[in-house]
UniProtKB/TrEMBL annotation:
<comment type="similarity">
    <text>Belongs to the ROK (NagC/XylR) family.</text>
</comment>
<dbReference type="InterPro" id="IPR043129">
    <property type="entry name" value="ATPase_NBD"/>
</dbReference>
<protein>
    <submittedName>
        <fullName>ROK family protein</fullName>
    </submittedName>
</protein>
<dbReference type="InterPro" id="IPR000600">
    <property type="entry name" value="ROK"/>
</dbReference>
């Protein structure tokens, strides 16, 4: 049980005649749309991006094209953004029809695309379309940078008593393309978690290296050990807790049941348990065996927004990454937050 919110649902998998609905609003979907429009341009003239594959054009470069002096390049990006915004609006409509998403007042959008201007413009396009259809929903970008939100949210997974007397925790955000491990500094005063932030983190783009599952876990453990030592050298007292966000459906034992197809190797095997694998590779933290808590990565990224969601009751998160992550939350009443065990 989480102290601040109830997770109503997460990792919803919706299908239509074209496949998974969420795939229409993923990072891959945006690049597929852009690639399609480039193909159309080439059949009638020059592609302003030349021979560069769409997959190699960074989000920051697309932002530059959008604001640049070349009207065709800007128009190309804007057209792809507009179409992607339409798809995002469609996905929002489908989710709001679900029983567990009924009454949602706000959706925060995270993931790598949300940190770019093109992503924010697409979200604005979706918001306008939804408002035009009479759908009352507040769409906004996640407050923390997506690279850090998936680490910051891990603090909400920890038992409050375990954080007392400590300065930081270890956290990891595992995605289909990237792995980030960080030290999250608590800075909690009287239960206020609004100042929680990432002290330091390491980033590995594992998709480029195509490691085996065991090699990926080894690298993750090495990153955690390096960071824990750096924190100790800096006189930060790290709690014996490791919070992890991971794609897919996670059971109460920390086993990944489904949805990890973008990770290296088979993470859904009955013989594989990430917490146990890490426990074998990591030393004690300040003399104690660490507690590992694993939850869905969209849930954890959404949890970073808890301090900013006190003006609503029911809210959700979309994370636009390799795929589309999703979760819906209901804030707990204040008396339950003080006594979450009841």
């Amino acid at each position: 049980m989480l102290p601040a919110v109830t997770v109503d649902t997460y990792n919803e998998v919706l299908r239509d005649e074209e496949g998974f609905v969420g795939d229409r609003a993923s990072g891959r979907a945006f690049r597929a749309i852009l690639d399609d429009w480039r193909e159309r341009l080439r059949s009638h003239g020059d592609d302003p991006f030349g021979d560069t594959p769409t997959s190699e054009i960074s989000k920051s470069k697309l932002d530059t094209y959008l604001a640049g002096a070349d009207p065709v390049a800007a128009g190309l990006v804007h057209t792809a953004v507009e179409e992607f915004g339409n798809e995002l609006a469609t996905v929002v409509r489908r989710f709001l029809r679900l029983r567990d998403w009924a009454g949602t007042e706000r959706i925060v959008v995270g993931g790598g695309l949300s940190a770019s201007h093109i992503g924010q413009l697409a979200m604005g396009r979706a918001a306008v379309l939804l408002a035009g259809d009479g759908i009352s929903i507040d769409l906004r970008t996640i407050d923390n940078h997506p690279d850090k939100a998936g680490l910051i949210g891990a603090v909400q997974l920890a038992p409050t008593w375990m954080l007392e007397g400590h300065d930081a925790i270890v956290a990891a955000d595992i995605g289909g393309t990237n792995l980030r491990v960080g030290i999250v500094e608590l800075k909690i005063k009287k239960g206020d978690m609004s100042k929680v932030g990432v002290w330091k983190y390491l980033h590995w783009r594992h998709r480029d290296d195509k490691p085996s599952r065991d090699a990926a876990v080894d690298r993750m453990a090495d990153m955690a050990k390096e960071l824990a030592q750096a924190a100790a050298d800096h006189k930060l007292k790290v709690a014996p807790f490791f919070g992890i966000g991971c794609p897919g459906l996670i059971d109460e034992h920390g086993t990944i049941r489904q949805g990890s197809q973008n990770l290296p190797g088979n993470w859904e095997s009955e013989e594989f348990n990430l917490a146990k694998e890490l426990a074998q590779r990591l030393p004690r933290i300040n003399g104690h065996e660490p507690l590992f808590v694993i939850h869905n990565d969209a849930v954890v990224q959404g949890l970073s927004e808890v301090p900013n969601m006190q003006d609503v009751t029911r809210w959700g998160v979309f994370t636009i990454g390799t795929g589309l992550g999703n979760a819906r939350f209901t804030n707990r009443p204040q008396d339950e937050k003080k006594h979450p065990e009841k």
